[in-house]
Specification:
Arc Repressor Mutant, subunit A, 6-stranded antiparallel beta sheet, Jelly Rolls, 5-stranded mixed beta sheet, 11 helices, Homeodomain-like_sf, sequence-specific DNA binding, alpha+beta, AraC-bd, 2 domains, single chain
Length: 292
């Protein structure tokens, strides 16, 4: 795979700035590679996950005070909130995919299943071993995502989401099969929380509801969830509700009142206030944005 971009020497790219918003869901993909030496630098806080895979060569990824070596035999996963600087050599090529929690929810279809496999332990970052045979289809999908990301074709958003779902399933399955990940550090309680969230977010909207079902205190559940995925229990619940609301706005003709009812709000005005609080946009403005 020799598709490369040429950058000026020591060009710095801020990976915290997403160049493209998929209907208000944060996603970006950058290509690593070119005839010139490159630096990918992130100097600001980001709430995005990052997956780095190389198709040729090797590089170091500085994450806070840690230095993570990445080569074609490993795929790196970096949890949200990490300061990250990727320094490839002249012969390195590959991709960096950056995506928000809500984009993962929208594209994955079953985030309660995928999330525990994407970050099975409490580490802020880790690498997943990958064989050349296993890397090939993942790299091909990453290339297709990159091409769609930079295209102006119809249905670009849908293509990116569909390709990303396959991509993240491949990565998550590799993580599941990896012997290098200590799954003992991933509390079964966290996996049960995400599974319960997926099935009950329309009826259970408070952290205490989930804590009661799991027979723990809300504070203990929040500590484990935050250590596992970087977000609080409340944030996970709120984002799951918001993502479903956005999905219904994007793909149905349901009214505000009907959507509110679907996701467990008896009062449409309460849902409207909730949506504005956690998206920063009014329901009507988001509806118009989707229509446009």
């Amino acid at each position: 795979m020799n598709r490369r971009q040429t950058f000026a020497t020591d060009l710095t790219i801020d990976l915290a700035i997403d160049k493209y918003q998929l209907k208000d869901f944060s996603f970006a993909v950058d290509e690593i590679g070119g005839e010139e030496h490159q630096h990918f630098d992130r100097t600001a806080h980001s709430n995005n996950y990052k997956v780095i895979l190389l198709t040729q060569g090797a590089c170091y990824c500085d994450i806070g005070s840690d230095s993570l070596k990445i080569d074609t035999g490993h795929i790196a996963v970096i949890r949200p909130g990490q300061f990250c600087r990727v320094v490839p050599d002249e012969m390195t090529s590959g991709f960096v995919l950056s995506f928000s929690y809500d984009f993962l929810q929208l594209a994955a279809g079953a985030p309660g299943i995928i999330l525990p496999h994407l970050h099975p332990g409490f580490n802020e970052h880790y690498t997943i071993p990958v064989t050349p045979a296993a890397l090939l289809p993942i790299a091909e999908i990453a290339l297709q995502i990159w091409e769609e990301y930079h295209s102006c074709s119809d249905l670009r958003d849908e293509m990116i989401r569909s390709l990303f779902r396959i991509f993240i399933l491949y990565v998550s399955r590799l993580n599941t099969d990896s012997n290098d990940i200590n799954y003992g550090k991933c509390s079964p309680l966290v996996r049960r929380f995400f599974s319960l969230l997926e099935h009950s977010f329309t009826t259970m909207k408070m952290p205490a509801d989930y804590a009661d079902m799991l027979a723990v205190t809300p504070a203990y559940l929040n500590e484990l969830v935050k250590r596992s995925c970087g977000f609080t229990t409340s944030y996970c619940i709120q984002q799951r509700i918001v993502t479903e609301a956005k999905r219904l706005i994007m793909y149905t003709e349901l009214s505000l009142k009907e959507i509110a009812y679907r996701i467990g709000f008896e009062d449409a005005s309460h849902f409207s206030k909730f949506f504005k609080k956690f998206t920063g946009k009014r329901y009507s403005d988001f509806r118009r944005q989707v229509a446009a």
